[in-house]
Amino acid sequence: MKPSVQIAKREIAQLFSSKTTFIFAILLPFVSILFFNTLLSDGVARNLPIAIIDLDHSSISRNVISQLESSPELEVSYFPLNEQKGEELIRLGKVYGLITIPQDFEVNLKKGKQVNIINQYNSDLILAGGLEYKAFRKVIGTISAGINIEKQRKQGISTQQAIVNFQPLTTNNHVLSNPFTNYSYYLNTGFLAMFFQLFVILTTTYCFGTDLKYNKGNKLLSIANGNLWSIIVGKVLPYTLWFMLVGVIMLISMYVWQDFPFHGSKIGVLVGLLLLIIANQSFALLIIALTNSFREALTIASGFAAVSLSFSGITFPIFGMPKFMQWVSQIFPFTHFFELLLDQSQRGFPMYYSLKSLAILIVLCIVPLTLGWFKLKRLFIKGKFKHHI
Amino acid sequence: MKVSFKTYYKAKTSFWNTISTEWNAIKSDKAVISTFILMTVVILIAYTYIYSNQVVEEVPVAVINQDGSKMSRDYINMLDATEGLKTVSNYTDVQAAKVAYYSKDIMGIVIIPKNFEKNIRSGKQTTITTFSDAANMIFYKKVLGDVTTINGYFSAGIVIKKQMALGKTIDEAQQNYTPIKAISTSLFNSSAGYANYLIPMLTALLVQLVLLMGIGILSGSRQEYISTHTNFPRLLHPGGTIPILLAKACLYTAIFMVVIPIQVGIVYTLFSIPVRSSLLTIYLFLVPYVFSTVFLGISISSFFKRREEAIVFLVLISVPSLMLSGLSFPVEGFSEFYKGLAKLIPSTPGINGFVRLTQMKASFFEVLNEWNHLWILSLIYFVLASISLKRRAFKESQMMKSQD
């Protein structure tokens, strides 16, 4: 193992002498950890601005407005005079929804007629629009139920019985994994882990690419006495260890410094993290072997890591993708790590059910390197990429 | 008069020279061409294909029916009839359902209690218990949302039937039950489809990503070959950066005027994503977006000593730019610091404006705020870009002189 130690020493010296590698491998991972942890620190969207057109101007309509206002998700920010002005506010992006209280709202309600409240919401912004819709329905549902129960009480029915009469069927919802439905728990787990693997794959591609761009392949091969394995171990292992440390800090930032739920096996997650790093390094080597220039290798590596976010199912479940894309998603190590991380942290599944993810990650560590082995060897013998640029 | 004409003439020559130099650089650089094509067409198609199903349907949930009555089966049928859920009822107890949940066969559990029908008939309140997994918000919303809706309908059905049994008409019974009816109309993206939501955002983000990458790669190679000042000889003259920067911005705007119709024309048509504005409006909006991004690209490109560094760095800022645009997670949830930071990135007004134009039927005057915002950014980055270019040309020429 002597030559690989020599190469590792050379690699570490290079890391500290090159500003770029230093920034990418050491500085930026921490910047990304800081960024995502602070960006969504609230985790829950509150006070979404809405507009209300009150055509009734009665005490009941004002009551409805104040109830909407007091719901934590909504904030009544505009009172447009007519529908046109209100719709303009939506198109201007100033409000997420427009609620109209029609004329004679109070009069009709007192007469016992059914009255309507109209909510137009922007469903193009799925998250904000959905929250507005839900909050509106909840508030109006509560007011409406209150009126119904009040009516029954006037007929001499007890409040309790009136509630039962109104709602014979209730639900008791148990929210598993993420009890506060905190978006930070949901999005940050994905973003942080995705960025982490992006750094791993880019740094590995970078450290091999710089040597091969400037024709150092032969030199490395001579240090290693022609043994490709010691080059790989020497160059990759320092980063494997370093990123293991970064990864642990990333996990600590979520589960210790912040309050993300963690109910599963810590060892399982750590093993998964190690496998994620190695699998990404293995893919980086395959990409180096298959490409003709440093630039091409970096473009493909960064593309590979970036699209893995969408393939992991965090933005849209794998379950809902076209069949072909479901298969493609299995190639990405991140898909399996992300599943393992969610299962072992928030969901708190028994470790047994995560063994499959671990097994696939092991396969993804071995296969890419094996596929690229001979081409990589030829590349090192040649000493440089086919194209300089 | 003569002087001003001379300046104008020189500026004009420099403008056209820059356009041809830059165009030739783009044309002859395989990296830039492949980045352009890969990013603008291939990535966009791949992403759209991922989201092409638009909504998640038929999410499997386990129903544990402890009652076994006719009413409970009606309830299950109603759940099953929803678009979002598919009921799987061959689990007898929670333990069996839990195992299925661990192996991801089901995404939620619904329990119908014993005496469900009996209680409802005798006027007692009954409770349906649900377990939904919020580790993935999309599944969580589907399960909880659909169960809540069906429960509402089911309750209302029971009450209204009872009222009708007392001799009321169905209208009266309905009015009695919900004195205030909440009518919700979803605007623009009525099916809440993910492709409709994400792809316009991505199209606008790609403009920024591709431009920054292309400029970064070109400028990186000029740094490697120390050719900035020879490529653009007027850089060292006073005011010499103005025609050069304008020429670059105009050239890239022209390129995107070709790229955008191809993207919208092919991808949007292929996956039937609506376009609700005219091409002319999009062009008009695009001008300051491209200008500000080009100037930003030139300002930061001095940091890249090698062409490869630009690629790495710019991939890294793409996801944060998308997040900061405030369309995926509402801006109301960001701290003041991030709101401020977001305003400095061209993609924030760029994505907002583009999405509102193409998806929310906004007229050009309704995106005027974003348009002005982009012009202000253009101005700021123009100044920074001039300083950065000038410094580089100066440094290079000093370097060449000392070598001679």
SSE arrangement of chain A, N to C: HHEHEHEHEHHEHHHHHHHH
Shape of chain B: elongated
Number of strands of chain B: 5
> Which assembly state applies to the chains in this document?
heterodimer
Provide the low-confidence segments of chain A as ranges: none
Elements of chain B, N to C (H/E): HHEHEHEHEHHEHHHHHHHH
Share of helical residues of chain B? 55-70%
Largest interface: pair, residues per side = A-B, 115 and 106 residues
User: Could you describe the largest sheet of chain A, including whether it forms a barrel?
Assistant: 4 strands, mixed
Rg of chain B (CA only): 30 Å
What does this structure look like?
The complex is a heterodimer of chains A (389) and B (404). Chain A has 389 residues and is an alpha/beta fold. Chain A has 15 helices and 5 strands. Chain A folds into 2 domains: 2-41 and 182-382, no CATH class; 48-166, abc type-2 transporter like domain (abc type-2 transporter like fold). A 4-stranded mixed beta sheet of chain A has the order 2-1-3-4, with helices on both faces. In chain A, helix 8 (183-213) packs antiparallel against helix 10 and helix 11 (266-290) packs parallel to helix 15. The model of chain A has no long low-confidence stretch (mean pLDDT 84). Chain B folds into 2 domains: 2-52 and 191-403, no CATH class; 59-177, abc type-2 transporter like domain (abc type-2 transporter like fold), CATH 3.40.1710.10. Chain B has a 4-stranded mixed beta sheet, sandwiched between helices. In chain B, strand 1, helix 3 and strand 2 form a beta-alpha-beta unit. In chain B, helix 11 (279-301) runs parallel beside helix 15 (368-403). Chain B is elongated, with a radius of gyration of 30 Å. At the A-B interface, helix 2, helix 4, strand 4, helix 6 and helix 7 of A face helix 2, strand 4, helix 6, helix 7 and strand 5 of B. Strand 5 of chain A pairs parallel with strand 4 (126-133) of chain B.
